Fold:
Amino acid sequence: MAGTYVFNFFLIILLIVFSLISQAKSEVYTVGGEDNWDTGTDYVAWSQQYSFNVGDILVFNYVMGQHNVYEMTQDTYRSCNSSTGVLRIYHSGNDRVTLTEAKQYWFICQIPGHCLGGMKFGVEAKQVGGNGVPSPPPTPTPTPGSEQGQTNAVSTREIGIVWICIIALGISVLM
Ligand SMILES: [Cu+2]
Structure:
């Protein structure tokens, strides 16, 4: 029964691979992809391409002084009125914001006109691991064909997973 043995072995390898995939690691996302943090980019559309988890890092790249990053409450995010509801302020031009809590985060640029012009988006950081029950996805993830931003998130981990699959296949064929 060498056939079943090989099949079982391959099945186990597959299970290991899938558990590695589902065990989400912290990812680093460059906000806006190649457009960075600037006017003229639809950041809501950008953010909807991804599913964010606790531990992930958002990187805001921009020319210091031309923009900034304010983490806001939801109401203030909607109104773009930053006179209240400011939770955190970043202005270094290379701000790394770690999503430390399982909650909704709201970001705007506070330079006058920029938030109303579209420099605003929200993300939901979901808890992974722990009880192993993922919260339901908040919004459907559209635009699979869009080219920007794909490059930063799907990088080394995906390639590693492909290699594991190839190696597992090779081993199971040899045995
Ligand atoms: Cu701005």
The radius of gyration is 20 Å.
